[in-house]
Amino acid sequence: MIERTPLLNIVTHVILIAGALLLIIPIWLAFVAATLTVAEVNSPNVHYLPGGELWNNLTAAWTRAEFGVKFMNSMIVAIAVVIGKVIISAISAFSIVFFNYRLRMVFFWVIFITLMLPLEVRIVPTYSVAANALYPFQTILDATGISWLIAQISGVELSLEWNMLNSYTGLILPLVATATGTFLYRQFFLTIPDELVEAAKMDGSGPFRFFVEILLPLSRTNIAALATIMFVYAWNQYLWPLLIITDRANYSTVVMELRRLIPGPDAIADWNVAMAGTLIVMLPPLLVVVLMQRWFVRGLISTEK
After folding, report:
1. How many other CB atoms sit within 10 Å of the CB of residue 112?
2. Which residue, 164, 248, 267, 293, could crosslink 252 as a Cys pair with Cβ 3.0–4.6 Å?
3. Within 10 A of 286 (CB to CB), how many other CB atoms are there?
4. CB within 8 Å of 286: residues ≥ 6 apart
């Protein structure tokens, strides 16, 4: 039962308005700063109303940070992470929920534990893997003597190497390997009634057909919610691209390039251009959230969390 009283309504609205102001005021100040001149943005008086230099500042930010290629790189990374995450999470959750094998809960908990190990925590071993993804297999071959045997028979020194630094693969794969999506799908799949599974079996559906024709259509809102979360997550990545990308001309992302717009200690403090660049960078994830808001909310509230 939901209790409705005038006092609770007032308190609730005050809390909501305060939260909205806390979110909106910094964005509004950044927008206002992006519309001012250098003299106005550095004046001691705080400006609350926009000026008339927005287009000039946006153009200056776009040109100085060379956002053209970087925008394309960020879009490729974000979309690839979304597609990879949606597919892998759905398949892994399908396996855990609808197949009965001994180690399925072990696999689930192993996946679940990775929620406590974000990329920033495991960044050193992840970088090591990205530097040579086949190094563990090379170690196994060396330890078992297989590489020595191949060298004795064929005279070829076996050296496995897959360097993912300075590549889209290196930017994308570590971001796909998270447990968020698997947990989201699992919670939804657990709500699928057994009668539906039995009916599908009686209709002659195999696992693949059941997954494609029944589960995926039912999971559209979950897919939308996960896609929204992962797009914003991948778009806002800064530390991982900064670590593995040295060829910035070809593989840098827009979030990395924002640093170019930050005025140095001896440079002109043109924070108006920096704020204009911030508006440009935040626009794609903002549009995704706004356009997907309806399905995003439904996807989150339709699962048991």
Report:
1. 14
2. 248
3. 13
4. none
- Joined together, the tokens standing for residue 293 give 């808001």
Alpha helices in 99-219 (DSSP H): 104-113, 123-131, 135-144, 146-154, 168-176, 180-189, 194-202, 207-210, 216-218
What CA–CA distances, in Å, run from 74 to 137, 178, 234, 273, 276?
31, 19, 8, 21, 18
Q: What is the pLDDT of residues 199-251, one digit of tens each?
A: 888 888 888 899 999 888 988 888 888 899 899 999 999 999 999 998 888 89
The whole-angstrom separation of Cα 20 and Cα 75 is: 29
Q: How far is the CA of 212 from the CAs of 94, 205, 298, in angstroms?
A: 11, 10, 21
Q: Is 51 helix (H, G, I), strand (E, B) or coil?
A: coil
In which element (H, E) is residue 272 found?
A: helix 271-301
Q: How far apart are CA 73 and CA 69, in angstroms?
A: 6
> Dmax over Cα atoms in the chain, in whole Å?
86
The Cβ of residue 209 has, within 10 Å, a number of other Cβ atoms equal to: 12
Smallest CA-to-CA distance from 214 within 202, 226, 232 is with 202
Between the alpha carbon of residue 207 and those of residues 59, 85, 305, the distances in Å are 53, 21, 26
pLDDT digits 0-9 by tens, 30-80: 999 999 998 888 888 888 889 889 999 999 999 988 888 899 999 999 999
276-303 pLDDT, tens digit per residue, is: 999 999 999 999 998 988 777 777 666 5
How many other C-beta atoms lie within 10 A of the C-beta of residue 95?
A: 16
Which of 229, 243, 258 is closest to 70 using CA atoms? 258
Q: Is pLDDT of 304 > 50?
A: no
How open is the CA angle 35-38-42, to the nearest 5 degrees?
100
Amino acid letter, 43: S
